[in-house]
Amino acid sequence: MTRTAITRQTRGDPGKIWTLEVSGIAKNYGATCALRNASLRLRPGKVHALLGENGAGKSTLVKIVVGAIQPDRGRIALNGVPTRFAGVRQAIAAGVIPIYQHLSLFPHLSVLENLSAFAIAGAAGLRARPALVPRATARAWLDAVGLDCDLDLPVERLSVGERQLVEIARGLGQRCTLLVLDEPTAALTHDETDRLFGVVRRLCAEGTAVLFISHKFDEIEALADDVTVLRDGVAVIDAEPLASLSRAELVRAMLGDMVESGERALPQPGAPMLIATGLMLGPAAGIATRPADITVRAGEIVGLAGLVGSGALELAAALAGARPVAAGTLAVRGETLPAGDRARAVAAGVGYVPADRHAEGLFGPLAALQNASSSTVALFSRGGLLRPGGEAAALMPWLRRLNLHPFQPERPAAGFSGGNQQKLLLSRNLAVPDLRVLVVLEPTRGVDIAARETIHDALVEAAGRGVAVVIASSDLDEVMALSHRILVVRHGSLDGELPRGTGRAALMDRLAGRRAA
Ligand SMILES: Nc1ncnc2c1ncn2[C@@H]1O[C@H](COP(=O)(O)OP(=O)(O)OP(=O)(O)O)[C@@H](O)[C@H]1O
């Protein structure tokens, strides 16, 4: 880290120092320009939202700020001191605490060991045996995020939401000058989100600056004071007060003009297409359940909704044969399949988009186009050889429609941003011509507002061509907007059904197990 001059705020509070000032940042990955001329200016004690469509460069900028990668050029100053972190450990030591979208805990280690990880990393090389933080200290950190759990429990036994709170608690245990939250609420329940926002506000009151990346406008409006919008690696809105901008202005800055669609008309459901009988997740999926009977008709969209850890995602995955089950069968248009047999489900025309595209879905080193075509490759092959042009002709329209960015179908999937990887997985399924059932977990997690509209349209269109669609999403607005009916999942079992038009409050009540008197 280098320390030389002091830079001062030029706007707002003259004379005061920006907590973080970033300017003129450029970063190229080979021929791809991820950041052209990015800037950020964060005030102490304020939440700063960083917005931009998928691939705009947000994660790249964050990685530079936290020292995970180095920029090709540009300046970074922390509290007025020019700074360049050689690695994340150095950034953490300086009080720059990153909380990642993809959790960075050690699943087999205990909560206490994970909470101690930063301290251990800092002490490496100095002590023969790394020390754990005192239990009382660890307990105080957990109290700060409102989490009451056993310090000796392996982290893998916690829900995803709880794990994220442990990660945040670990960050809060450090001197925290700048907290970097990259889509932190993707896996949190509404209660956990509220708790997180409470923690963030408290930190701000103590002077911490917060960089907050999200695609969810409601959350941005609830939390952020200032905003920067990146477009193609350039700040097109540069550290403006959020209150001075309308939502339409922000969207226009992100994407250019965009027509917002109103409420979608859903197709009329036809005959039963998918029938699950006695489906029970059981211990193999880590959840004890009661057997579930679920029928989804051709042209119908059924939403599975539940709190984090409810088993809604697992139950939906089981409907695609993508989870081991303790009992039950699936039938697709009358053909009975053993549940838990994904290969048989694929052969029966059951598409599946997992929630965790990194762990389950993508072949990172393969080209985007090959990733998108992996479910339909047989259609373009003859005698084991790919028919030239066939793959591109079938998949390119989908990649164009979902606005793959940058539009470089030959590039390895691993080099695309998170939202664009999600588009590849969706294209893979939507392009299957004899698709009968489509199960999509978290359809728009991490995708930008334009792609969200397109994906919603594409799912309704799939239903329109007779596909039975199942979605499971922690985004309740999405479930309400798309579903003919909503199945409530609690403790891994079905707990009732709600019709289209059910309001958000009523749905929340049911998910939490409250019933109207
Ligand atoms: N490791 C990498 N190798 C090659 N290209 C990359 C790599 N990481 C990012 N890119 C490219 O840099 C650009 C910016 O990506 P980045 O992940 O920063 O976008 P983002 O705004 O965070 O998008 P999202 O909202 O989808 O997460 C994209 O064109 C992306 O394809």
TrEMBL record:
SMART domains noted in UniProt: AAA (SM00382)
Entry's Gene Ontology molecular function annotations: ATP binding; ATP hydrolysis activity
Keywords annotated in UniProt: ATP-binding, Cell membrane, Membrane, Nucleotide-binding, Repeat, Sugar transport, Translocase, Transport
SUPFAM superfamilies linked: P-loop containing nucleoside triphosphate hydrolases
Biological source species: Azospirillum palustre
One Pfam match: ABC_tran
Domain ABC transporter as annotated: residue spans: 20-257, 274-516
PANTHER family, per the entry: CARBOHYDRATE TRANSPORT ATP-BINDING PROTEIN MG119-RELATED, D-ALLOSE IMPORT ATP-BINDING PROTEIN ALSA-RELATED
Name by which UniProt lists this protein: Sugar ABC transporter ATP-binding protein
